[in-house]
Amino acid sequence: MNVLLMPLRLYYRRLEPALDRLPFDLVALLARIVLGSVFFRSALTKVDGFSIAQSTFFLFEHEYALPLISPVLAAWLATLAEFGLSLLLWAGLATRLAALGLLLMTLVIQTFVYPDAWVTHGLWATGLLTLLLRGPGALSLDRLLSRLLGRQVSAA
C-alpha cells in the first residue's frame, strides 16, 4: 500500500509545488499569441484588400443573422473588433479590455451563430478568461506602461 502512495506523495510534495513556482508570464504570452491569431485569421477571411468582402455581408445576413443588429453593422463591428482586439492582445496593450471584447464576441457566436461548437468556444473562453483575470504577464506593453505610470504617480 505504501508503494502505491509514493507517486501521490511525489506529486503533491514535489511536482505540484515546483509547478506553482513557475512564472505565468510565458503562459500569458502564449495565450495572447494563440488567441490573437485565432481572431486575426478570422478577420482576414472577412476582407478583400482594404474593404470588407461581399461574402462577409452575405454571411452576416443569411448564415449568422444576429438579432437586434443589422447585418451590415454586425459585419463591420465584427471585422474591426477581430483585427483591433487581436492586435491589442499581441502587443499586450489594454489586454484585459481586449480579452473582454473577444470573450463577449465568443459568447455571441456561441449563443446565436454556432451553438454546437461549444468545445471550441469553451477553449477560447477559458484562455480569454485567464487573460482577463490574471493579466497579460510581464512581456507586455501593459506591464511597461504600468511601471512607467506607477513611477510618475509615486514621484509626483
Automatic annotation (TrEMBL):
Presence of keyword Membrane: yes
Database matches in InterPro entries: DoxX, DoxX-like_oxidoreductase
Residue ranges the record marks as coiled coil: none
Membrane topology: Multi-pass membrane protein
Keyword terms: Cell membrane, Membrane, Transmembrane, Transmembrane helix
Signal peptide start and end residues: none
Keyword Transmembrane helix: yes
Xref: Pfam families: DoxX
Residue ranges of the TM segments: 64-90, 97-115
Subcellular location: Cell membrane
PANTHER family: INNER MEMBRANE PROTEIN YPHA-RELATED, OXIDOREDUCTASE CATD-RELATED
Family statement drawn from the similarity comment of this UniProt entry: Belongs to the DoxX family.
Record-given protein name: DoxX family protein
Record organism: Halomonas halophila
